[in-house]
Amino acid sequence: MAVRIQFTTLLVRIDRLTAVAPDGVAALTARWSPSWHDEHLLAVAFMDMGARDLAAELEAMGLVLRDTSTGERVWRDIAVVDYYDGPTLPCPWLECDLARHVAWLKGTVPGPIAGPEHEHEEAPVRVSPEKFQQLLQSQHPHLFAPAQPPAPAKPARPGRTRPGEHEAALLPLTQQIAAELLHIIPLSAKIEAVVLMAHFPHPGEVVKAGRVLHAIDGELRSMSLPPLTADTRRMLEQLSRYESGNRLTSIEIKIAADGRVTTNFGIAPPKSADELEDLLRRTYGSVPEAKAPRAPAPQGFFGKLKAMFGAGPRVTLHPQPTLRHIPPTEPLSLFLDPLDGIHEGWDDEPAAANASTTANASASARPAGGAPAFDLAAFHSLEAARVAGTPPPRPAGFTASGPQLVVPAQEGLFAAEARAFGRVALAEFHRERPDLRFDVANDRLTRDLGALGQLHFTAWNGNLNRADLDVDGLASLDELLERLQPVLVALGGLGPVSNALGTRSPAGTREPVPVTYDELRRYLVPDSPYGSKVFPCWLLGAPPHTRVGLDLSCGLPNNRPAFGYLVTIAHI
After folding, report:
1. Per residue in 230-248, is it b (16+ CB within 10 Å) or e — as a string?
2. Which of 62, 162, 171, 513 would suit a FRET pair with 2, their CA atoms being 20 to 30 Å apart?
3. Is-contact 242 159, C-beta < 8 A?
């Protein structure tokens, strides 16, 4: 048999997996999806960088990812295969058919194909090496010597659009649609938000649904979006026929009370009319329904006479907001173009250097403030020793000494939230929790925790999936540590705080690693104006299927130090 390749697919040899974990196939397919397998290979597909997390988990189980014993890096127990380009490293035990996007164990006969019936979804979102290089050069110009000539560009795939072409065609249409939406809403409605969702199952076919959130006597109410104008329906049909590398399948337009207009474009499989209504119900179902106020009907002869002369009962009319269109955070070409290649970084080789050069480079790379620097050469030597079968000595790390971050044993506020956390509809969760306030503009529920900040509950596809407490912009590390004390109390009952530097998932951290204040002072040094430095921690006593994280961060926005913390409760 053979297995189908989709997006970036990580293949595991089943014979090697069962040698270290007899129930490994069942365990991985239960935790990772989408996945499928034949009698020789287990395949797990990814549209992001998640293949690294699974690879780390497999390595922790005892599998060897790569082999360098012959002087060439090759896949050993696993293989990462790209949908377009095949294996990202040489793999002597694997054969691939790039035309059909399938792979099988070398030496076996490829028969029936295990995997989804269709060969692929729409072409995945991909960022080309050239695009990444442009972004890197624009954000970090000091890394590039002025005299260095640009790398020659690879030939573009057929049908590639020019930069800005999508924006020039689509954004004016969505702006006109937003203006048309205001024309159909009664002036007696005090608008809090207008939401229009339109999905395009096929070119020329439009499935739509919408809500108007408005205030009556200070209370939030919801009503269905009135029937669209002919011009709006015409523009939606025009959007549904828009041609691009990845077919445009949906848009979502939101108009806030202050006139801010945001548009989200989608390329995921479109929803049916019932599914779209169900999504709106799960998101906004907690808001009571009520139509916009209307003037009462005139009573009696004199009432009708007053109405004829404009002196009858009236309702308050509200001016329409002035629209301010917010541009998308990412260029539309990232979503609507099948960009060249996806670079997972699996085949990066360290530059050859002698010992003195490596030592000097490590010393020069050490950040200000004495923060530990990552030694790539040491990492590769440890990996080579492990592949050769000689257990290497563990590198000497930071010795935990002095006062530490300690979570009390008694249950705190966040422990109660984590234990009650479930994947339920956001509207149902709101009905169960009257203490939460609905934030219309951001589709989330909030709760004010005083000195701790605001707790935000967010949803994905209408279902609750995450809670955050985010505080940023503190002027010093001392202020951060002072604000952190009540946070640790609120996290009480969730187990010890464990240092998560160098790991990407809680599965990679099994033993508590203390976090000391001394270590935080060495690491949290704001030395880069281009991004935040994050010290991640996890609480190892989180409930099943729940991750509780505490990220401490620092940066130099506007050339001023800024410290902060982020508490996250999320499903895994």
Report:
1. eebbebbeebbebebbbbb
2. 62
3. no
- Tokens 């080579």 correspond to 384
How would you write 27-64 as a 3-class SS string? HHHHHCCCEEECCCEEEEEECCCCHHHHHHHHHHHCCC
C-alpha–C-alpha distance, residues 317 and 188, integer Å:
5
* Inter-residue contact 251 to 239 (CB < 8 Å): yes
Summarize the chain as % helix, strand, coil (round to 5).
Answer: 30, 25, 45
- For residue 191 the two structure tokens come to 């608008």
* Dist. CA 336–CA 268, nearest whole Å: 11
416 and 431 Cβ atoms separated by less than 8 Å: no
DSSP letters along 141-177, please?
GGGS-TTSPPPPPPPPPTTPPPTTHHHHHHHHHHHHH
The answer to whether the pTM exceeds 0.90 is no
Kindly state the tokens that stand for 328. Answer: 């998308």
pLDDT of the residue at 230:
92
Residue 523 vs residues 16, 24, 101, 374, 533: alpha-carbon distances, Å: 39, 37, 45, 12, 8
Instruction: Determine the length of the chain.
Output: 572
> Side-chain half-sphere of 146: how many Cα atoms within 13 Å?
0
Give the pLDDT confidence score for residue 396 in this predicted structure. Answer: 46
Is the pLDDT score of 35 beyond 90? no
Q: Identify which of 40, 39, 41 has the alpha carbon closest to the alpha carbon of residue 9.
A: 41
**Whether 210 contacts 263, CB under 8 Å:** no
